[in-house]
DNA sequence: AAGCACATGTAACAGGTTACATGATTTC
DNA sequence: GAAATCATGTAACCTGTTACATGTGCTT
């Protein structure tokens, strides 16, 4: 069974930290958590509407400035229950982590040899940019703090996710570097 | 821009190795390439129909046994062109690699401390099972061959994708192991 | 003859992206 | 006053999953 309604639980999880508007939720998906899940504002507003009718969240209005309305959302007790049971569920299998670059490399034989290095170099550039961004984030939030044992539970979730993202990118870059060498040597043979 | 019609190109790529039926394509997604892209048979048959009307592939019938029809598909010259230009395209950004376990960990503060180790252990079990499967595959295809420089171009694609999948799982397992220790120590403080 | 793998298809629904549409507030 | 950001929403379309539906061929 595929994992269903992940966006629902991502939103409930964000709201369990603090009340937010649809716009705030959209912004969160551009930060740390966006490394592992994201959605566009159009989808988020629809999901919020659905969560309201399901009584998992409730809404109130805040005014910014003179008349700009921010629709703020809060978890209901049902929403808290929904979130908690989702967080405690055991996964029975890992889903395919889709990766278009790896897919393309599988079809390597149809790529002219001279085109391959620039494909790798482009990917390396993108991955290095992402890694630099993640390292910046790490420095901002955990720069001085070199012992995660001192973090509170909320910070710890952020820490684990950031270190996961960093490890993932470093591992990707290592594989790209090694593979590029192999392909170059293979081509010279 | 999100990457569009990836399934189309995955199918064209598979057909560039040899003619296949919809069933064969479905089977391929259960092997190495399924680590990076997959689809259900229902979606594959629809996509094949679409590719036929677009003249990217053509169809012929093979009979197995007495009357079981296998609809075989071949790349047309248009299909080969489509595939080639997709393989040479530069990606302008890396997409979010969705990962539900990491998402759940971000919401760690809402998980009771005593439940956390079993969540990690479940994930470790799943990841270790996957790694064992991948290592088996590696042994089957590249067991004796310890020098990828001797591989031909078709085998090289397979090699790179398999080593990528193995590296990904090893990296995941390392992070899980380290993180579980951190969470345990953090909880004792 | 039972069970499993081979083989193809459709329908309903769920999830996600792009484009369209509008207006307020802040910053320079 | 222009531009960027804040803020919310809908419509059309594309992608992907689950369930339904049917039949053949091989192995034991």
Outline:
2 copies of one chain form a homodimer. Chain A is mostly helical. In chain A, 60% of the residues lie in helices and 10% in strands.
For the structure shown, list the relevant keywords.
homodimer; 189 residues; mainly alpha; Arc Repressor Mutant, subunit A; 2 domains; three-stranded antiparallel beta sheet; 3 strands; DNA-binding
Structure report:
- Two copies of one chain form a homodimer.
- Chain A has 189 residues and is mostly helical.
- Chain A folds into two domains: 6-88, Winged helix-like DNA-binding domain superfamily/Winged helix DNA-binding domain (Arc Repressor Mutant, subunit A, Orthogonal Bundle), CATH 1.10.10; 100-188.
- Helices cover 60% and strands 10% of the residues of chain A.
- Chain A has helices spanning 6-17, 22-28, 41-53, 77-88, 100-106, 116-142, 153-188, and strands at residues 20-21, 57-64, 68-75.
- In chain A, strands 1-3-2 form a three-stranded antiparallel β-sheet.
- In chain A, α1 (6-17) crosses α4 (77-88).
- The N and C termini of chain A lie far apart (46 Å).
- The model of chain A has no long low-confidence stretch (mean pLDDT 95).
- At the A-B interface, α1, α4, α5, α6 and α7 of A face α1, α4, α5, α6 and α7 of B.
- Chain A binds a DNA duplex (28 and 28 nucleotides) through residues 1-2, 4-7, 21-23, 26-27, 39-43, 45-46, 49, 64-71.
């Amino acid at each position: 069974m595929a994992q269903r309604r992940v966006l629902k639980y991502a939103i409930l999880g964000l709201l369990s930290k603090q009340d937010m508007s649809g716009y705030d939720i959209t912004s969160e998906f551009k930060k740390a958590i966006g490394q592992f899940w994201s959605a566009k504002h159009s989808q988020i507003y629809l999901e919020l509407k659905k969560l309201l009718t399901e009584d998992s969240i409730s809404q109130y209005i805040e005014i910014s400035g003179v008349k700009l309305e921010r629709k703020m959302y809060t978890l209901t007790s049902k929403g808290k229950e929904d979130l908690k049971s989702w967080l405690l569920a055991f996964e029975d299998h890992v889903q395919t982590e889709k990766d278009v670059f790896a897919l393309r490399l599988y079809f390597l034989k149809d790529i002219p040899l001279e085109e391959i290095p620039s494909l790798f170099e482009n990917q390396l550039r993108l991955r290095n940019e992402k890694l630099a961004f993640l390292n910046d984030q790490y420095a901002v939030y955990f720069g001085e703090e070199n012992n995660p044992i001192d973090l509170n539970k909320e910070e710890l979730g952020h820490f684990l996710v950031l270190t996961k993202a960093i490890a993932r990118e470093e591992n990707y870059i290592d594989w790209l570097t090694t593979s590029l060498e192999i392909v170059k040597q293979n081509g010279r043979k």
